[in-house]
């Protein structure tokens, strides 16, 4: 029995394995728990194994790679075209086994433990910031019902909350005063948690060599640098910077047929969080930087005369993504060359 490729459909407690032969025939169909799967693959001949890139795939990928297998992670939307007829776990595993054998298939690099830790740190921080915004909005809504309006900035509300709670003349019932105090305490606690995470990210960005090189690029600070390293490592998954920018959805969406090219807004594919913070970094460069002091200044000024400012910001984010990939893939420091960027 000569196995050509193996597909594993991952689940929380059960894992379905399908092995295909040289002619595409199904040689094996088995269902395992995680421990049973690792034990089975340890005695399996060295094979090409494919899995969808999802939760738990990186751990299992490293475990199978340590056994000598060639493990590939595939984005789920690239597996879907290979699913035949109805959907079940074995059909999904068979589709993965067919997809992993394609030479032009795009794969996801298996992340290291450090990358996963850094990615988890960013995800928790992002969730806390969303929750903090929710608390602020709820506070504003409650106080607005009592006729208290504050400036849009959260800083103004934060400065006013202690006085609102201490002033007995405010139109607040005892019950609402207790609720506002509880929300205020929750807000302060989240501020401390976010501050601790910001400090941890700063420490990592200052000690990691790749992050230090990325921080030399205008618009990329510790937050963006660590997020890029956590997502793509050294950038080996991409052949050029444009592929990295396209993976993040920072290139126009295309729908062309019959020789007619149609381009729309950016595709917004890939890592939404990374795209968001990279656009914020690009906005800081466009709006805050002194253009006569940076190499991209003349390019920004020239483009700004032809397109709206938001288009310029997205174009800047695309350019930062390409530069970041070049810095990571080459292992060299960022070197700005004035006049080298075409208008």
Walk me through this protein's architecture.
By secondary structure, the protein is of the alpha/beta class. Helix content is 54%, strand content 10%. It has helices at 34-42, 57-66, 76-79, 89-100, 113-144, 154-166, 174-207, 209-214, 222-232, 241-247, 272-288, 297-304, 309-330, and strands at 5-9, 15-20, 26-32, 48-52, 70-74, 252-254, 263-266. It has a 5-stranded mixed beta sheet. It has a two-stranded antiparallel sheet with strand order 6-7. It is globular, with a radius of gyration of 25 Å.
Determine the N-to-C terminus distance: 59 Å
Strand order of the largest sheet: 3-2-1-4-5
Quote the average pLDDT. 92
Low-confidence stretches: none
Class based on secondary structure composition and strand pairing: alpha/beta
Net shape: globular
Residue share in helix: 40-55%
User: In angstroms, what is the radius of gyration?
Assistant: 25 Å
Taking the sheet with the most strands, its summary is: 5 strands, mixed
What is the beta-strand fraction?
A: 5-15%
Order of helices and strands: EEEHEHEHHHHHHHHEEHHH
Number of strands: 7
The number of helical segments is 13
Key features of this structure:
single chain; 343 residues; alpha/beta; five-stranded mixed β-sheet; 13 helices; 10% strand
In short:
Helix content is 54%, strand content 10%. The chain has 343 residues and is of the alpha/beta class.
Helices, strands, pairings?
Layout: E1 5-9, E2 15-20, E3 26-32, H1 34-42, E4 48-52, H2 57-66, E5 70-74, H3 76-79, H4 89-100, H5 113-144, H6 154-166, H7 174-207, H8 209-214, H9 222-232, H10 241-247, E6 252-254, E7 263-266, H11 272-288, H12 297-304, H13 309-330
Parallel strand pairs: 1-4, 4-5
Antiparallel strand pairs: 1-2, 2-3, 6-7
Helix pairs in contact: 5-7, 5-9, 7-9, 9-11, 10-13, 11-13
